[in-house]
Amino acid sequence: MPYRPTEKTRAHREAQQKNLLKSAVKLVAEEGFKGLKVSKVAKRADIATGSVYKYFESKQALCAEVFKVATIKEVEKVRQQALEDKTLSCTQRLLNTIEIFAQRAIQGRRLSYALIAEPVDPAVETERLIYRKAYADIFTQLIEEGMAREEFRPQPASISAAAIVGTLSESLVGPLTTAVESNRDIETGDLIAAIQNFCLGAVT
Amino acid sequence: MPYRPTEKTRAHREAQQKNLLKSAVKLVAEEGFKGLKVSKVAKRADIATGSVYKYFESKQALCAEVFKVATIKEVEKVRQQALEDKTLSCTQRLLNTIEIFAQRAIQGRRLSYALIAEPVDPAVETERLIYRKAYADIFTQLIEEGMAREEFRPQPASISAAAIVGTLSESLVGPLTTAVESNRDIETGDLIAAIQNFCLGAVT
DNA sequence: GTCTATACGTCGATAGAC
DNA sequence: GTCTATCGACGTATAGAC
């Protein structure tokens, strides 16, 4: 690679980085963060192990980036369900949001377990805090709207929002852990209904 | 000290270890896990830095142990409120449990933040999973009893229990983080009431 | 990107128990 | 006298500052 960035090298660099990230996410989706070995990622992305560090400061940074790109996608799905279609009642949107989140988590168990619960490097843990806040902000808006429409009882929206985020992750940790460990399926329907009822009762 | 463990040396060893742990917990209560330096703990416990490794395999192990002893205490408080006094209604016990948990968390902010939310070594994270399960088991019992008494609506107890654990930790993370960062107080009353209402609505 | 400061964990020496 | 717990300085890795 040349010593002055040109348009071409910049594009190449970005493509390589994206490729690397994609391989890393896939690896985490298969084996969790504990399976994310730099050499393995490099091999999949078809570059030398050492070159990984040309694109990411450290393994920590790579992990954090993997977490970010994977989580942003989930946050966006949740945002859509929660806030986009204003023709639906807030109650309905809350139920839909929970369903989408849980459904996706159960579908992509290993990745979701990695994102939500797997013990990981503090750097990733810090990102978790940030993105749980992002989820909470979405629910805060939904709850405020629900209160304005008098669908939900008066309540401190941000506290309830945080509580819902906690409810979602914690109620899925157990099932996800079991499913990942034993590679078995989850009683999806009952689980989702239980979480929906819990949250609905909590805010109304 | 003798070269074959006797009663006396055993006692000495245990006392040393306890002293070390106590110093470590105090340190974490003041500065969080990020402030837990081996040399500092050693100094407080009045032993040499190197000797710490005679009692704990590694810093990780020390951290994990600190987490355990501090958390077991909290779990026990929660267990008492939730399950001990059978003359109280389950509803009342649920409210009391939430109050105790939140009150103690807000009181000992720094320690609670460290135990609940601070980004830490994966070894400690693993312990978090274990003890959140311990909390969940307590709430599972309480909810089952509440359903039997027809105070709570029919629901999968273990899922609701996990949800309550998630609610408690997540709704306190924000306030604790703010309080720790700015060293300010928390609007205790409103916060606790909000969490209580949320959980009560969720299970009834 | 380099440089410094800091902290983990090890090791040889020492002192003191049996 | 033998053996071991403790000491504390040092090597090495790392993280944070400029």
Percent range for helical residues of chain A?
over 70%
Briefly note the structural class of the backbone of chain A.
Answer: mainly alpha
Number of strands of chain A: 0
What integer is the average pLDDT of chain A? Answer: 92
| Most extensive chain-chain interface | A-B, 42 and 42 residues
Gross geometry of chain A: globular
Radius of gyration of chain A, in Å, reads 20 Å
Strand content of chain A: under 5%
Please trace the helix and strand order of chain A, writing H or E for each element. HHHHHHHHH
The N- to C-terminal Cα distance of chain A equals 60 Å
**Uncertain stretches of 5 or more adjacent residues of chain A:** none
Tally of DSSP helical segments of chain A: 9
Oligomer: homodimer
Q: What does the main sheet of chain A amount to? A: none
